[in-house]
Amino acid sequence: MKIAIVGTGYVGLVSGTCFAEMGVDVTCVDIDANKINNLIKGIIPIYEPGLEDMVLRNVKAERLHFTTNLTSVLNDIQVVFSAVGTPPDADGSADLQYVLEVARTIGQNMQQYILLVTKSTVPVGTASLVRQTIQTELDKRGVSIDFDVASNPEFLKEGDAIKDFMSPDRVVVGVESEKAKELITKLYRPFLLNNFRVIFMDILSAEMTKYAANAMLATRISFMNDMANLCELVGADINMVRKGIGTDQRIGGKFLYAGCGYGGSCFPKDVKALIQTADKNGYDLRVLKAVENVNAYQKQVLFHKLEKHFKSDLAGKTIAIWGLSFKPNTDDMREAPSLVLIEKLLQAGCKVRAFDPVAMHEAKQIVHSKMADLIQTDSSKIYFANDIYDAVLDADALMLVTEWKEFRMPSWGVVKKSMKGVLVLDGRNIYDKSEMQEFGFTYEPIG
Ligand SMILES: NC(=O)c1ccc[n+]([C@@H]2O[C@H](COP(=O)([O-])OP(=O)(O)OC[C@H]3O[C@@H](n4cnc5c(N)ncnc54)[C@H](O)[C@@H]3O)[C@@H](O)[C@H]2O)c1
Ligand SMILES: O=c1ccn([C@@H]2O[C@H](COP(=O)(O)OP(=O)(O)O[C@H]3O[C@H](CO)[C@@H](O)[C@H](O)[C@H]3O)[C@@H](O)[C@H]2O)c(=O)[nH]1
């Protein structure tokens, strides 16, 4: 079977490569010529564990191809997946310009039946817009060609993307024709050996399922962060509370980790977009608004702890940050809590020494463009360190922001000698309090 995937980002490249791994002939399409040229040369644009090997293997086997020209493959295939970006508009709703552009290109150029499957996260009702857009282009051409639209939202997590795609808990598909259902069933059949279900439903419910899933996960995190903040005030331990409630099968143990806020390209934007969808339908999603507020507060919690410790006298202090990406195993910096902290530290007159195993390049670019006004007079205000020990040199405090594996067991003796101060703020609760105290640190986790 031959398919095309439009949009060669995290979702498009991972999905395309995984379909190719299962024997499907896949062409990945992107408007970014630089990205496509690099992929043709074997240069992978994102950091995702295991992806590079899998891309190279499938390119070599001639099952995975790259092009900037969707039209050139359109008449050789029956199924097109759209995995282009849906970034937030100024009001927080999803910007559908890329999704509709793909539909337009298809309507303008298709010569035979096409099933267009939207994998991007799109507001409920988008499939109708996609259908209308294709139909309008066909009408302009004065031709009548059969086509279908479907919704197949993606649930993969960055850093675990290949495992999530190959063995998901489930695949959700919204269809409105038997033909579309058959094509998608055929495509996912090889994956079913990995023991998951394809759940077919109507398109509106499939579109809604994606937002409801992300909203529920974000809600769990904000709920736990709220509980963590209360635990601190009453002297309870959020980790014990987490274990205590997570063992209740109705609650479950996953996505219950308190921390310094959720980031990434999905939760923040999808929570906003769902609030917008509700507003447009005259409904106030009060729970999700609270989820957002808690998260905005939580991204500043480590800074507030620092202020409290130094009695707001932060000017001139050197603060080390371990972990910049929004979560481990990715170089993605979108909505990363580290960015909020760096900005607040620079505004308070601190010097920042930052380190991340993978996201240094992205982090540097963002800090230098978005915080230019804060560092222009003195670029030494932020230093991107060579490793974890370089980062803590002469630091008054250390903040652990992203729980990369290599931060889990540092040589605390070396860290202690290198630091000027003793404060360690653990934004992901990965260290052992008594061990930290034995080393002489003032240790503060979340909750
Ligand atoms: N990143 C994730 O972990 C994840 C997981 C599940 C769902 N999603 C959703 O999937 C969608 C894609 O996310 P992403 O993170 O992969 O985005 P991304 O920004 O990494 O990639 C999108 C790609 O689409 C390309 N593009 C834009 N317009 C195009 C067009 N007309 N033709 C061809 N290519 C075009 C861009 O150049 C870019 O390379 C979003 O809706 C997102 O919400 C993302
Ligand atoms: O218990 C937890 C779990 C996660 N996080 C934070 O939540 C954010 C998101 O993490 P995660 O969900 O693992 O990463 P994403 O790659 O953003 O994946 C989410 O967003 C994707 C895009 O929609 C969905 O496909 C996935 O199912 C959904 O988990 C990160 O900042 C994490 O640090 C916590 O604070 N506590």
Automatic annotation (TrEMBL):
<dbReference type="InterPro" id="IPR036291">
    <property type="entry name" value="NAD(P)-bd_dom_sf"/>
</dbReference>
<feature type="binding site">
    <location>
        <begin position="255"/>
        <end position="259"/>
    </location>
    <ligand>
        <name>substrate</name>
    </ligand>
</feature>
<dbReference type="Pfam" id="PF00984">
    <property type="entry name" value="UDPG_MGDP_dh"/>
</dbReference>
<comment type="function">
    <text>Catalyzes the conversion of UDP-glucose into UDP-glucuronate, one of the precursors of teichuronic acid.</text>
</comment>
<comment type="similarity">
    <text>Belongs to the UDP-glucose/GDP-mannose dehydrogenase family.</text>
</comment>
<feature type="binding site">
    <location>
        <position position="158"/>
    </location>
    <ligand>
        <name>NAD(+)</name>
    </ligand>
</feature>
<dbReference type="GO" id="GO:0000271">
    <property type="term" value="P:polysaccharide biosynthetic process"/>
</dbReference>
<dbReference type="InterPro" id="IPR028357">
    <property type="entry name" value="UDPglc_DH_bac"/>
</dbReference>
<feature type="binding site">
    <location>
        <position position="263"/>
    </location>
    <ligand>
        <name>substrate</name>
    </ligand>
</feature>
<dbReference type="InterPro" id="IPR008927">
    <property type="entry name" value="6-PGluconate_DH-like_C_sf"/>
</dbReference>
<dbReference type="Pfam" id="PF03721">
    <property type="entry name" value="UDPG_MGDP_dh_N"/>
</dbReference>
<dbReference type="GO" id="GO:0051287">
    <property type="term" value="F:NAD binding"/>
</dbReference>
<dbReference type="Pfam" id="PF03720">
    <property type="entry name" value="UDPG_MGDP_dh_C"/>
</dbReference>
<feature type="binding site">
    <location>
        <begin position="155"/>
        <end position="158"/>
    </location>
    <ligand>
        <name>substrate</name>
    </ligand>
</feature>
<dbReference type="InterPro" id="IPR001732">
    <property type="entry name" value="UDP-Glc/GDP-Man_DH_N"/>
</dbReference>
<keyword id="KW-0520">NAD</keyword>
<feature type="binding site">
    <location>
        <position position="30"/>
    </location>
    <ligand>
        <name>NAD(+)</name>
    </ligand>
</feature>
<dbReference type="InterPro" id="IPR036220">
    <property type="entry name" value="UDP-Glc/GDP-Man_DH_C_sf"/>
</dbReference>
<dbReference type="InterPro" id="IPR014026">
    <property type="entry name" value="UDP-Glc/GDP-Man_DH_dimer"/>
</dbReference>
<feature type="domain" description="UDP-glucose/GDP-mannose dehydrogenase C-terminal">
    <location>
        <begin position="320"/>
        <end position="433"/>
    </location>
</feature>
<comment type="pathway">
    <text>Nucleotide-sugar biosynthesis; UDP-alpha-D-glucuronate biosynthesis; UDP-alpha-D-glucuronate from UDP-alpha-D-glucose: step 1/1.</text>
</comment>
<feature type="binding site">
    <location>
        <position position="210"/>
    </location>
    <ligand>
        <name>substrate</name>
    </ligand>
</feature>
<feature type="binding site">
    <location>
        <position position="269"/>
    </location>
    <ligand>
        <name>NAD(+)</name>
    </ligand>
</feature>
<dbReference type="InterPro" id="IPR017476">
    <property type="entry name" value="UDP-Glc/GDP-Man"/>
</dbReference>
<feature type="active site" description="Nucleophile">
    <location>
        <position position="266"/>
    </location>
</feature>
<dbReference type="GO" id="GO:0003979">
    <property type="term" value="F:UDP-glucose 6-dehydrogenase activity"/>
</dbReference>
<feature type="binding site">
    <location>
        <position position="334"/>
    </location>
    <ligand>
        <name>NAD(+)</name>
    </ligand>
</feature>
<feature type="binding site">
    <location>
        <position position="35"/>
    </location>
    <ligand>
        <name>NAD(+)</name>
    </ligand>
</feature>
<feature type="binding site">
    <location>
        <position position="327"/>
    </location>
    <ligand>
        <name>substrate</name>
    </ligand>
</feature>
<keyword id="KW-0560">Oxidoreductase</keyword>
<feature type="binding site">
    <location>
        <position position="121"/>
    </location>
    <ligand>
        <name>NAD(+)</name>
    </ligand>
</feature>
<dbReference type="GO" id="GO:0006065">
    <property type="term" value="P:UDP-glucuronate biosynthetic process"/>
</dbReference>
<protein>
    <recommendedName>
        <fullName>UDP-glucose 6-dehydrogenase</fullName>
        <ecNumber>1.1.1.22</ecNumber>
    </recommendedName>
</protein>
<dbReference type="InterPro" id="IPR014027">
    <property type="entry name" value="UDP-Glc/GDP-Man_DH_C"/>
</dbReference>
<feature type="binding site">
    <location>
        <position position="86"/>
    </location>
    <ligand>
        <name>NAD(+)</name>
    </ligand>
</feature>
